[in-house]
Amino acid sequence: MTREQYILATQQNSLPRTEHPQFYPVGIYGWRKRCLYFFVLLLLVTMIVNLAMTIWILKVMNFTVDSPLVLQSDRNVTVNARNHMGQLTGQLTVGADAVEAQSKRFEVRATESGKVLFSADEDEIVIGADRLKVTGTEGAVFGHSVETPHIRAEPSQDLKLESPTRSLVMEAPRGVQVNAAAGDLKATCRKELHLQSTEGEIFLNADTIRLGNLPVGSFSSSSSSPSSSAPRQTIYELCVCPNGKLYLSPAGASSTCQSSSNFCLWS
User: Fold this and answer.
1) What is the model's pLDDT at position 6?
2) Phi and psi, residue 45, nearest 5°
3) 248 pLDDT above the threshold of 80
4) Distance between CA atoms of residues 252 and 226, nearest Å
């Protein structure tokens, strides 16, 4: 084989063979296509109905972005809190007659500082506000004792401690001090007023001590009495009976208490 014949033979073998290509159809046809369109249409209708129901619920329940949440009921509204085991741990019930809260501890805190303003549990009730104000006409009623280091009235208001039907007792192991810095101190009673000191003394310190409405003793018949023509008596002597009662006796050149001591016999 000559060189030219070899080159010609190899070129003929290297030429591509022309054959008819085979095409395979890709896609969904027939009843599968119709089912797919039906499911897509059903999903679209479901979405539209769900959106319409959501808008209707928001409209009926008055759910808005800028307005507060309002829960209304013909009877009451109850909010329950449960743990992971399903046990009831807290409950808030708003009814027509009362608002009831059931929990181990109830707290009311300030919005900004987070300070506990009110807390209550089985052991105690704590009021953490700076001031507790009772505006009722009958005031506050406590069934047992009240412990406080300071009782103070509002500015320009009087402070009144009163027991309408029983006695009022103020006791302190280290003393009771009553002070009126810019006013009078008055003690008024219907019957007897007792000032008693078991171990110490009763000390009255003032520029003037006045005892009003003291009875005036009369002279006994055996003693000399002032004449009717004598001027009106303006000076008296303070006398004390053996039982501690005080009375006045007209003053004279000497003590006249002995002359008017018959006052102590019938007083």
Assistant:
1) 57
2) -65, -40
3) yes
4) 10
What single DSSP character describes residue 229? T
Question: Do 265 and 233 touch, CB atoms closer than 8 A?
Answer: no
N- to C-terminal Cα separation, the chain: 177
DSSP 134-191: ---TT----SS----S---PPTT-------SSS------TT------TTS------SS
The tokens describing 143, both together, are: 């069934």
Q: Which residues are within 8 A (CB) of 190 and not within 5 positions of it... i.e. 6 or more apart?
A: none
Q: What is the predicted pLDDT for the residue at 90?
A: 92
* Cα Rg of the chain, angstroms: 53
| Contact indicator for 267, 245 with CB cutoff of 8 Å | yes
Find the length of the chain.
267
Give the tokens for residue 127: 């009021």
This prediction's pTM: 0.43
Is the separation of the CB atoms in 251 and 260 below 8 Å?
Answer: no
Q: Tell me phi and psi for residue 105, to 5 degrees.
A: -150, 140
**Tokens for 84?**
């992971």
